[in-house]
Amino acid sequence: MSPVFNFSAGPAVLPREVLLEVQGELLSWHGSGMSVMEMSHRGKEFMQIAAEAEEDLRAVMGIPANYKVLFLQGGATTQFAMVPMNLIRGHASIDFVDTGHWSKLAMKEARKFGVSTHVVASAEDRGYCYVPAQDGWQRDPQAAYLHYTSNETLGGVEFPFIPDSDGVPLVCDMSSNFLSRPTDVSRFGLIYGGAQKNIGPAGLTIVIVREDLLGQTVSGTPTMFDYKIQAEGDSMYNTPPTFAIYVAGLVFKWMQRQGGLKAIEQRNIEKAALLYETIDTSNGFYHCPVEKAYRSRMNVPFKLAEERLDEDFIKEARARNLLQLKGHRSTGGMRASIYNAMPLEGVKALTAFMQDFARHHG
């Protein structure tokens, strides 16, 4: 069978060697006679899996000792509520950077908690194709925290910098570029993200939170939504997403074998550069709407000059085993998600097809 390259925005491609590990251990993990899916989350076998997963994530990302790592459920969308529940801490407002779909949804949820959602800067004026320069942000020094989305999956806009928060806790929805490059965790109060892009199966959400921000939830916060309780229970206040944690742990080990985040970042730069070059040198046949300085390395949106060719493009791509290239329903066009596990060969196969398609239909 010819290789299939899956460009889905999520759930997304996983490293093939990790999937083979999962296959080999599916019926009996390390000779235990049990699948990970059958294990008690409080048994010694799974406790070992969970402890190793956290240890390896801390090593890969360089997470300082004064940060808690939580393996939760509910996706990043649930964090739109959990973050304000835990981090408002008596403040009257929250600062947001508005760069598109997901940052807008985070703001919408935060408004439900009786605080002002203050937009420090918005990219709406140019159709969400860039990140506003930080020197023009209108910050509230008394805000509970400053929130931004480091990579907008739909729009393909990525922050090329970590914002300065001037002492206000910095909160980041890092879902779609989590672990795609080195990150100075010490600059953040809290990082969160769904696992289904670069980390593992859907169903797992990772939260990395500084310890001093724990324990001051708003009145009425459900027990399950209290970061302090989750931290004290090692993310096991209830049954956690055990299989997803196990697969994520294997991915963290795979990342270490790849040379860590510096090496992974270089491969991501190479893949993105190849795809954007193909778009930019197509003499207008393809077009990326994102300004060059803010183009995502993970999610590459592009449109054909003639929309009537979209259906043919998808059909012919599928015939060459290039899958999940249709853009989000709200944006149209195409979108190629090239997360860590997408090999360079996959991007080369896509760009070769794009060049052939342009020659035949241009």
Automatic annotation (TrEMBL):
<comment type="similarity">
    <text>Belongs to the class-V pyridoxal-phosphate-dependent aminotransferase family. SerC subfamily.</text>
</comment>
<keyword id="KW-0718">Serine biosynthesis</keyword>
<keyword id="KW-0028">Amino-acid biosynthesis</keyword>
<comment type="pathway">
    <text>Cofactor biosynthesis; pyridoxine 5'-phosphate biosynthesis; pyridoxine 5'-phosphate from D-erythrose 4-phosphate: step 3/5.</text>
</comment>
<feature type="binding site">
    <location>
        <position position="153"/>
    </location>
    <ligand>
        <name>pyridoxal 5'-phosphate</name>
    </ligand>
</feature>
<dbReference type="Pfam" id="PF00266">
    <property type="entry name" value="Aminotran_5"/>
</dbReference>
<keyword id="KW-0963">Cytoplasm</keyword>
<keyword id="KW-0663">Pyridoxal phosphate</keyword>
<feature type="binding site">
    <location>
        <position position="173"/>
    </location>
    <ligand>
        <name>pyridoxal 5'-phosphate</name>
    </ligand>
</feature>
<dbReference type="InterPro" id="IPR015424">
    <property type="entry name" value="PyrdxlP-dep_Trfase"/>
</dbReference>
<feature type="modified residue" description="N6-(pyridoxal phosphate)lysine">
    <location>
        <position position="197"/>
    </location>
</feature>
<dbReference type="InterPro" id="IPR015421">
    <property type="entry name" value="PyrdxlP-dep_Trfase_major"/>
</dbReference>
<feature type="binding site">
    <location>
        <position position="196"/>
    </location>
    <ligand>
        <name>pyridoxal 5'-phosphate</name>
    </ligand>
</feature>
<dbReference type="InterPro" id="IPR015422">
    <property type="entry name" value="PyrdxlP-dep_Trfase_small"/>
</dbReference>
<keyword id="KW-0032">Aminotransferase</keyword>
<feature type="binding site">
    <location>
        <begin position="76"/>
        <end position="77"/>
    </location>
    <ligand>
        <name>pyridoxal 5'-phosphate</name>
    </ligand>
</feature>
<feature type="domain" description="Aminotransferase class V">
    <location>
        <begin position="4"/>
        <end position="350"/>
    </location>
</feature>
<feature type="binding site">
    <location>
        <begin position="238"/>
        <end position="239"/>
    </location>
    <ligand>
        <name>pyridoxal 5'-phosphate</name>
    </ligand>
</feature>
<keyword id="KW-0664">Pyridoxine biosynthesis</keyword>
<comment type="function">
    <text>Catalyzes the reversible conversion of 3-phosphohydroxypyruvate to phosphoserine and of 3-hydroxy-2-oxo-4-phosphonooxybutanoate to phosphohydroxythreonine.</text>
</comment>
<dbReference type="GO" id="GO:0004648">
    <property type="term" value="F:O-phospho-L-serine:2-oxoglutarate aminotransferase activity"/>
</dbReference>
<comment type="subunit">
    <text>Homodimer.</text>
</comment>
<protein>
    <recommendedName>
        <fullName>Phosphoserine aminotransferase</fullName>
        <ecNumber>2.6.1.52</ecNumber>
    </recommendedName>
</protein>
<feature type="binding site">
    <location>
        <position position="102"/>
    </location>
    <ligand>
        <name>pyridoxal 5'-phosphate</name>
    </ligand>
</feature>
<dbReference type="InterPro" id="IPR020578">
    <property type="entry name" value="Aminotrans_V_PyrdxlP_BS"/>
</dbReference>
<comment type="pathway">
    <text>Amino-acid biosynthesis; L-serine biosynthesis; L-serine from 3-phospho-D-glycerate: step 2/3.</text>
</comment>
<dbReference type="InterPro" id="IPR000192">
    <property type="entry name" value="Aminotrans_V_dom"/>
</dbReference>
<dbReference type="InterPro" id="IPR022278">
    <property type="entry name" value="Pser_aminoTfrase"/>
</dbReference>
<feature type="binding site">
    <location>
        <position position="42"/>
    </location>
    <ligand>
        <name>L-glutamate</name>
    </ligand>
</feature>
<keyword id="KW-0808">Transferase</keyword>
